[in-house]
Amino acid sequence: MDCCIVSALWYFLVFYLLFHFLCFIFADADFTLLWASLVGHRPETKLKGLVVWITGASSGIGEELAYQLARCGSRLILSARREDELNRVKRCCLEQSNLQDEDIFVLPLDLLERASHEEKMKTAIQHFGHVDILINNGGRSQRSLFLETNVDVYQALMELNFLGTVSITKQVLPHMTKRGTGSIVTVSSVVGLAGAPLGTGYSASKHALQGFFNSLRTELTDYPELLISTVCPGPVQSQIVHNAFTEELNKPVATAGNQEYKMPTSRCVHLMLVGIANGIKEMWIAKQPFLLFNYAWQYTPTIAWFITNILGKKRVQNFKAGMDADSSYFTKPKTS
């Protein structure tokens, strides 16, 4: 009998290590998240009927979250600055789901206007009575070299990505602790775990979010039914590059480059919802080689630094040559 138990444990260990290795090399999500997608709770079952508040819901990951959650049967609060775009997203949600008009509430919100966030929370509660899930998705990226970038850009990135997110969380969290249940899910980035050139301020704001929510999670151990989760996507097909900060506050990105090589937004969002449905505290979502890079930083930081120096140099070369900073790591930039 003991021999059978040992054999079973041995086979399980071999399977676990093999599966982990395959995730390490070939997958587009970390081991825990991929395992949950295979054997865990399904989002359309777990998230049906829940009230989900999405910031940054007018485009990109936020817009796709609205569509997939609507098809799951979640009731939605859609927030961003552009009310007309939020209404467009609401119409699309209604067209592709069984939700009714009253199941989707458009709530315009500017993360920079922190004095308004308490009133926005009250308005959300007035409409639905409660909030089950807050998805902190609003924010902007960066494409500029530090030596050429005004300090005002760094202030704007921290005000928006970090303090704006902390502010809206500050309003929602007491409501959830009072109920004893809820989820606060924050979209960070792979550069919230490891830095990258051309995004020093963006990376700093995402590192700040990682530190804040990791610390907050430990403060909430008396609330085992309250999930604090961070999502760390790699490059995703969205408008985030088009709207990125550059070296000056109001200067637009010259060229966004080819987005086709990046992970489809629909795939990223599906994995996010799997993670939320299964209570995963941190999710790594990225196509290779970006996911492999995350694993390198986690387990072999010395090797990761070596790779970072090589890829970072290529990224800066691409940027200076007018190419997309992400898409052509392994091509030679044109010099003429």
UniProtKB/TrEMBL annotation:
Keyword Transmembrane recorded: yes
Keywords linked to the UniProt accession: Membrane, Oxidoreductase, Transmembrane, Transmembrane helix
Pfam families, alphabetized: adh_short
GO molecular function terms attached to this record: oxidoreductase activity
SUPFAM superfamilies: NAD(P)-binding Rossmann-fold domains (SSF51735)
Gene3D superfamilies registered for this protein in UniProt: NAD(P)-binding Rossmann-like Domain
Keyword Repeat in annotation: no
InterPro entries recorded: NAD(P)-bd_dom_sf, Sc_DH/Rdtase_CS, SDR_fam, SDR_family_member_7
Transmembrane segments: 12-38
Domain of life: Eukaryota
Positions in coiled-coil regions: none
The family this protein is said to belong to: Belongs to the short-chain dehydrogenases/reductases (SDR) family.
Protein name (record): Dehydrogenase/reductase (SDR family) member 7
Organism: Monopterus albus (Swamp eel)
